[in-house]
Specification:
Radius of gyration: 14 Å
Strand content: 5-15%
Number of helices: 4
Shape: globular
Strand order of the largest sheet: 2-1-3
Largest sheet: 3 strands, parallel
Length: about 100
């Protein structure tokens, strides 16, 4: 990925359906609405290249490390919730590698 194609802001969230047995059993994932709204807002401003990465159907936070190493964004906007704190911490650690 060339420098001009690389996103300046990567917008994501820390929800992994595979780690939420209650919602996975009911096939009821939570949609990542807040990150989508932020990505849309930043894109409308036109000042930065924005990419959205959805973790909902990924297996675990290690897939985020692969995405970050491939995209190499300048900034990461990570939406989290108290129930996804451990995933968010793993994603932050992965983004620093």
């Amino acid at each position: 990925m060339s420098l001009s194609d690389r996103p300046e802001v990567l917008v994501t969230h820390a929800y992994y359906l595979g780690r939420d047995s209650r919602r996975r059993g009911a096939l009821y994932p939570l949609p990542p609405l807040q990150p989508l709204q932020i990505a849309a807002f930043l894109s409308q401003q036109g000042d930065a290249r924005v990419t959205q990465w959805d973790s909902t159907f990924r297996v675990d936070p290690s897939s985020f490390e692969v995405a970050v190493s491939r995209m190499r964004p300048l900034a990461i906007w990570l939406y989290t919730h108290p129930t996804t704190r451990s995933e968010a911490m793993a994603m932050l650690a992965a983004s620093r590698r």
